[in-house]
Design brief:
With 414 residues, this protein is of the alpha+beta class. It has 2 domains: 201 residues, Cytochrome Bc1 Complex, Chain A, domain 1, CATH 3.30.830.10; 178 residues, Cytochrome Bc1 Complex, Chain A, domain 1. Helices cover 44% and strands 18% of the residues. The strands form 2 sheets. A 6-stranded mixed β-sheet has the order 1-2-6-3-5-4, sandwiched between helices. The protein is globular. 43% of the residues are buried.
Length: 414
Amino acid sequence: MISMADSGMRVVTEKMSEVRSVALGFWVGVGSRDEAPDQSGASHFLEHLLFKGTATRSAQDIAEAVDHVGGEMNAFTSKEYTVFFIRLLDEQLDLGLDILCDIMQNPALRAEDVDAERQVILEEILMHADEPSDVVGERFAAAMFPGHPLGREVAGTKEIVSVMGRSDIARFFEQHYTPGNMVFSAAGNVDHDRVLAGMEARFRDPLRSPSRRVRARPSAPPERVSVTERPTEQAHVVLGMPSCARSHEDRWALSILNHVLGGGMSSRLFQEVREKRGLAYSVWSDRAAFSDAGTLSVSAGTAPQNVDELLKIFSAELDRMRDGGITERELEVAHGKSRAETVMALEDSGARMSRLGSSLLLEDEVREVDDVLATIEAVDVADVSRVATEYLSLPRTLAVVGPFNSERFESFFA
């Protein structure tokens, strides 16, 4: 059920009478792509700071209150939105609303907390820099969206985070954390009217108007090759191409394509790369979708001496799917996997809360599950063949992290 609260925020709930938990979440329509270059990392910085306390609660007060009732509280930042959520027993609904509404309206944003959390974020950036699998994904995004915020890392850079001040972060909060730019979602053993009344009693912000979000569509052509030289034991590679935006109708057929290509143990890549040749422990394909752009990619880590063979397999499998599509049996397997993943996710209150919040924030609607399943089931071999021909024919981008110099892969696309 969806309602508009007095503050102008949309509230969506789903009752699960068979469970004893509730999952509550604020979905804010701002992420790293909405930051100016000198704000890079501001959304992620706020994700950390909102847990550092409010005018009436310290960080320890918040942590103890949630731990005392066995709850879970966390947040994450993406390129187009930021989420704050809590999951606890249904009898603790009011506590969950109290804490979430407090941190979303009244964060202290103390200068000393900014400085303390700055160091935590810098350590997080360093941690990811030490993970080649993370680095290659970042390099791939930067190559796919050169000079565009979608190509920047969500956490920002050491240089910008090191100098970002309390006033910069507070200004970013005031601009974007407005009721009109938020969705509140709740799932579990909840009553919609009670949640709505609780939100209206706790969340009142009549003075701030919704932020006016203007997003520039990526326009620069992707770079072809990005090589990061590291003395790693494995070479980490990503090979991909542009794909469709989040709401494009092709997303359904591309989802099936993704399952067949590298979405599970029976996928073509898993069978060819791991089962038949033992070239990688993990190999997969991935589809990233944003409001106005997307990517489709295949990834793996392998011994440096095997990287040429791995890339030949990647290219061959992409070409084979481009030229021949998929089989009826592969379609059946992908349909079954998609259906099971969708249905099994409904057993968890946190997953349902996420489905509600993300759907309403990003798509302005929450489709019925049966409607989603019917749409997936309607995808046929011809649909997948069409999108395979269209998207897998686009120019490809290669990102590599490993013990190679920058000239090593210059002839890959020759």
